[in-house]
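Much of what follows relies on a compact textual record of a protein's fold. A record is reproduced here so that you can trace the correspondence yourselves:

. . .
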Amino acid sequence: MARRISQPYHCQPLADLARQLLFAPPDKRIEQVRRAEKLHDQLDTSVAYPFEFISYRITGYRSETESDSLLVGEAILPDLRLLIDSLSRATDIPIQGNEAFEEPKELAARARVSEKTVSRWRQAGLRWRWVIDQKSGQRRLMIPREAADRFLAENQVKVARAAQYSYLSDDDKVRLLARARRIAEAGDFTLNRVATHLARRSGRAIETIRALLEKHDRENPRNAIFINRTGPLTTKQKRLIARAHRMGVRNRLIAARFKRTRATIHRVIQERRAAAIRRIEINYVMSPTFSRDDADQVILHAPEPREGKQKSDAKMPTDDLPESLRPLFDEPEWSADRQRRSLVRYNYLKFKAHQLRLALDRHEPRVAAMDQIDAALTQARLIRDGLVLSSQRLVLSVIRRHLLGQADRSTNAVMELLEMSQDVLRTAIDDFDVSRRQTFDAHVTWHLMRHFATQQGSRKAHRRVGAEEVLRKIRAGDVLSDLQPLEAAAERDAKDDLR
C-alpha cells in the first residue's frame, strides 16, 4: 500500500485553512479538493501570491479582513498537496466520468521505476488524491493520470535517471568498483561515505552502490575493498555517539570506542544535529519585507531610532507577592514602537532560520549553515525573553482586574494565574501580526482574559504554586535554542556504555 508522506506545512496560513476546511460539509469539501487541484496545476513557483487569493481560489469566499501575507509559490505547492491529502482522506469523493486515476504501482510500472521512487516524486511535486475502492470500500491513494503525465513531462531527466537506478551493466559495475577501490586506498573512508560519493557522481541510488560494494567484499574476502569494515553504525550507536559528544567526551576517544575514524564520528554528530534542527517547529508571521534582498540590513542591522513616548515607570505595588518575584515587576515596560520593532525582528529571525533549514543538504549538512540556524533561533529566543519580562507588569494588572469580584483573591490565586499566564503570553507573542492596527498590549490582554474566562469554569480547586515554579516558568527556554539534547535517557547510561 502507498505510504502517506510526513512533512510539515511551509505556510502557517494554509495549515490553519486546511484545519478549518475539515469542518465544512462533505459536498463543500469535494468542491474544495477539486478547486485546490486546479489551483495547484496553475501556480508558478517563482511568483508570490497573497493568501487571500489562495483562500478565495480554494473556498470561493472572499475574507473581509485585510492581510499583507504573501506566500511564495514554491512553498504553496507542497502545502496544497498536503491540503488535498487531508481533505480527500476525510471525504468520500466520487470519480467523475472524465477523471482517470492509476495506482502508484501502475505508475511505477509505466515509468519503469520502483514504488519508493513514486513516493519520493510525491514529495517532489507529484499530486495525488485518496479515493474509495468500490469493491472493498477502503480508501486508497491514487495518482490522477493528468497529474502523472504533467510530472513525467516536466521532469524527463529525473524520470530517465530514476529508470536507470535498478539496472547496472557489467561494465558499470567494474567501473564503479575500480573507482571505489581508488578512493578507499587514497584515504580512510568508510563504505557508506564512498557509496554516497559514487551515487552523487554516477546518478545512481545510494542503496544500489552500497549493495554492489557489500556484495563484492562478501564474495571476494581476499580482495575486499574495505578490509577493516565493521558494518554500518546502528541508530542506537549514533544516538550514543551524539550523547557522548554532548557530555564532553573527545571525538578521539569516541572513535576508539567504536573503532571508527574521527571523520565518521564528526559526521554522525553533525547528522544528529541536522536531524534535531529538522524536527524543530518554526512558526512565524510572514511579512513582505522578509523577502527583500536587503532584509538583513533593513531589519537586523538598521540603527536604533529614538525611543518614542515611554510607558509609566511608576512602581507597581507587589506587597502581596513573594519577595523573590518582586524584582520582575521593576522591569521597565517597552514602548509600543520598541515592541513592534522587536516582534518584526523576532519573526524575521525565525523566517530566516526556516529558509536556511530548507536549503540544508540532507546528505551532507554544512556546519556553517547549522550554526547560522542556531544563531538565528537563539537571537529570536532572546528577543522573546525580553518581551516576556517587559510584559510581566501587564500580565499582573490583567490578573488583578480578572480577580476583582472573585471570591478568592489570595496570593496563591495570583500565583496560580501568573504561572498559567506565561504560556498564554508566549502564544500571544508568536501570534501577533504587526501589520494589524491592534496594539501588542491589547492583543496580550485579549488572550489572557479569554484564557482566564475559559479556565474559570473548568478549574474546580486551586493548587498551590510556589515562587520558584513561577520563576522557572517565566525564565524557561524552549526548542528555539534546544538543538542538541534529543534523548531522554539518563546520561549515566552513556557513561557506563563508554567504559
User: Anything to note?
Assistant: The radius of gyration is 28 Å.
